[in-house]
Amino acid sequence: MTRILVGLIGANIQQSLSPALHEDAFAAIGMVGHYHLMDVDTLPGCDLDGLLAAARTAGFAGVNVTFPFKEAVIPLLDQVSDEARQIGAVNTVVIGANGHTTGHNTDRSGFRTAFIEAFGQDTARDRTVLQLGAGGAGRAVAFALMDLGVGALGVYDRDRDRARKLCADLGGRAHVLDAPEPAAASAAGIVNATPIGMQGHPGQPMTVDVVHAG
Fold first, then answer.
1. Which pTM does this prediction carry?
2. Exposed, middle or buried, 54 (CB in 10 Å: 0-12/13-18/19+)?
3. Can 70 be counted among the known catalytic residues?
């Protein structure tokens, strides 16, 4: 029976469901797999570079990469797929038998597919969308929204330079917002691509009383 060792590198990931999900998937296809959490918050002295090197040394077949490392991991890799390079973020690293690392991004296709399944192929087409967050996950989501044909995308991030960089990479259909609340009234949809709302990041990414139904 095939055995495989994989894992997740990130911060504050102890509540992640990824180990259970992946190990169930391995069992369903007749593989024995272990999905190991590599959490910088619980591993004193460890950083992204060190954890990636440890995964290579230990014979991992690959790792997922999550907040806050999806952009920072790119220069540490031997190779990056064209799509991940365009997005500017990596969430999946394949490690070859010789330790060669290749970065990929599945967030874009994952968001796009989930959106279509939930709301339909053309729901976002030519509509105005407000996106909160322009980090690693936000970059992938923004490109997915472009794939879905949004007419205009307003991007808000507390780091304005990061928002500007994303909008420049997306072209003319995206623009930087000084604040998210004024844009909410005209938005057909709002996407939260910030860590706020995740385990360990309580609160709301914007004032919720400006959000309207429909």
1. 0.92
2. middle
3. yes
What's the CA gap between 194 and 205, in Å, rounded?
7
Q: Letter for the amino acid at 102? A: T
Those residues with Cβ within 8 angstroms of residue 179's Cβ, 6 or more apart along the chain or in another chain: 156
Q: Rounded CA gap, 133 and 156, in Å?
A: 6
Phi-psi region of 100 (alpha: psi -120 to 50; beta: other; left: phi over 0): beta
**Domains annotated on the chain, with CATH:** 3-105 (3.40.50.10860), 108-210 (3.40.50.720)
Catalytic member of 70, 108, 112, 162: 70
Q: How far is CA 5 from CA 19, 59, 90, 181, in A?
A: 11, 7, 19, 44
- Nearest C-alpha neighbor of 187 from the set 147, 152, 144: 152
CA distances from 88 to 25, 79, 162, 191 (A): 28, 13, 11, 19
Phi and psi, residue 70, nearest 5°:
-65, -30
Instruction: Write out the two tokens for 54.
Output: 């440890």
pLDDT, tens digit, 9 for 90 and up, residues 95-154? 998 999 999 999 999 999 999 999 999 999 999 999 999 999 999 999 999 999 999 999
